[in-house]
Design a protein that fits this description.
- The chain is α+β, with helices and mostly antiparallel strands and about 450 residues long.
- It folds into three domains: about 110 residues, no CATH class; about 190 residues, no CATH class; about 130 residues, no CATH class.
- About 30% of the residues lie in helices and about 30% in strands.
- Strands 7-8-9-10-16-15-14-13 form an eight-stranded antiparallel β-sheet.
- Helix 1 packs across helix 3.
- It comes from Pseudomonas prosekii.
- This is Lysozyme inhibitor LprI-like N-terminal domain-containing protein.
Length: about 450
């Protein structure tokens, strides 16, 4: 009888522990100093709740690793308890654990590209390779763009109160409008545009939501909702991840990056062809629009530039036109020969000064690079500029490979005296590019502001 009772008590204790591992803190049963500290602090209690949700989600997604997960969670609880009532310590422990759990969850549920996805990226590579060497991507992606079966409409109301239109927009069926009205579609801050299109080939149109929030980066956040029965359901997202990259499919930045998206159809599948560009390269990631993407098929297009300094320069702000004298034009042209024609090098290694350092004056750093950069532009490289026997510090900067038919690559060559880090002059630089190669790979999306 004693043995049976002890077994029952042990089983109950085990169940209690398992419940605590999965649900987080029950403050009505808080006993230890640590538990009471958490319950007395709103921020810590919120973190504990988030951690419980993240742990439950990971357990659900990792059915074959239950024992390992429980062991790891118990070890973390012991580590947490060593903080006792130190709020800063507890806060750090929770945030670290949340980051670990979410990373494990993402890896567990992330979509793995299959053979069709890899063949799609190879089809794209071959098409680009055969295209115009100056504008290969635009023409190929344009030919693959989803052009039929879509309906676009916009939100109504002010930015902080935007919502779905009050009446069904043209092109939206009664059934779709009823499903939209019954769905939990975000409608708080930001201006939204919506697109209905069949993203998974089931014959029902799904929903793409593009939210423009602005900010310093002029951000847009794009997410998708699958049509499921009578409603639209948000694609899979991590628990408590509204502020993380997993709460949306991808983002676009209108300042501080060169990013676009094209919805394409390849081998019968719809992809969000997310393009992130830099000086000398365009990366195109084929995102599965209704999944959490981990490693994705990627096509990279590399370029080489022919750079030149126009003799006639026009000030963008004042409109004043000047003609460079021969000596200055020659010096600037010579300086361009010092920078890479295929990739941005940023400020370089700065191991040697670009100009001779005098015994007195500015510190050595002022002679090793042009200076700090800014998130709105890309540093291609720093170099010396020799003019009239004097040495100047130069920098070639561009806007992340931004390119158009009229000017080609738009860039600027900056020039300043080495003894001062302020002031300086800027000169327009044009560049014509030619494709040098196209490669495919499978890996993480890089350069997105939220992925």
């Amino acid at each position: 009888m004693y043995t049976k009772g002890r077994w029952i008590l042990s089983a109950c204790a085990l169940l209690s522990t398992e419940h605590a591992l999965a649900t987080g803190m029950d403050c009505t049963k808080a006993v230890s100093i640590v538990e009471k500290s958490i319950c007395a602090n709103t921020a810590l209690y919120a973190l504990d709740t988030q951690m419980g949700a993240a742990y439950r989600a990971l357990v659900k997604a990792s059915s074959e690793q239950q024992v390992e997960l429980r062991t790891a969670q118990r070890a973390w609880l012991k580590s947490r308890d060593r903080c006792v009532e130190d709020v800063a310590c507890l806060d750090q422990r929770y945030r670290e654990r949340l980051q670990e759990l979410r990373a494990q969850w993402s890896d567990a549920v992330a979509y793995r590209p299959d053979d069709v996805d890899k063949l799609a990226s190879e089809d794209l590579r071959q098409a680009i390779e055969k295209s115009d060497p100056e504008f290969p991507l635009g023409r190929v992606l344009g030919s693959l763009t989803v052009k039929v079966g879509t309906t676009d409409f916009s939100s109504e109301g002010a930015d902080d109160e935007s919502h779905l239109p009050t009446t069904a927009p043209a092109g939206v069926t009664k059934d779709e409008w009823k499903a939209l009205a019954a769905s939990e579609i975000p409608g708080d801050y930001g201006t939204r545009s919506y697109t209905l299109m069949d993203l998974d080939g089931d014959g029902l149109r799904d929903l793409v939501v593009d939210t423009y929030t602005g900010g310093t980066g002029l951000f847009e956040y794009i997410d998708t909702f699958r049509r499921s029965g009578d409603v639209f359901v948000k694609r899979v997202a991590a628990p408590d991840s509204e502020t993380s990259s997993e709460s949306f499919l991808f983002s676009l930045s209108g300042r501080g990056a060169n990013q676009t998206v094209t919805w394409v159809k390849i081998r019968g599948r719809i992809y969000a062809a997310y393009q992130n560009s830099y000086y000398g390269v365009d990366h195109v990631y084929l995102l599965n629009p209704l999944k959490l993407n981990g490693d994705v098929p990627t096509v990279s297009v590399n370029y080489r530039y022919e750079l030149s300094v126009p003799k006639t320069q026009k000030d963008e702000e004042t409109g004043v036109v000047t003609v460079l004298d021969a000596a200055l034009h020659t010096a600037l042209t010579q300086a361009l020969s010092e920078v890479s024609k295929t990739e941005a090098k940023d400020v370089g290694d700065q191991s040697r000064p670009l100009c001779p350092i005098p015994p007195t004056g500015e510190g050595d750093g002022a002679y090793s690079s042009y200076g700090t950069g800014h998130y709105t532009f890309e540093i291609v490289g720093d170099m010396p500029i020799t003019l009239g026997g004097d040495c100047y510090i130069g920098r070639l900067m561009d806007w992340f490979g931004g390119y158009n038919a009229k000017d080609g690559l738009y860039a600027q060559l900056l020039m300043r005296k080495p003894e001062t880090v302020d002031g300086g002059r800027g000169y327009q630089v044009n560049g014509r590019r030619s494709m040098t190669g196209v490669t495919t790979s499978v890996g993480k999306v890089e350069g997105d502001n939220g992925i």
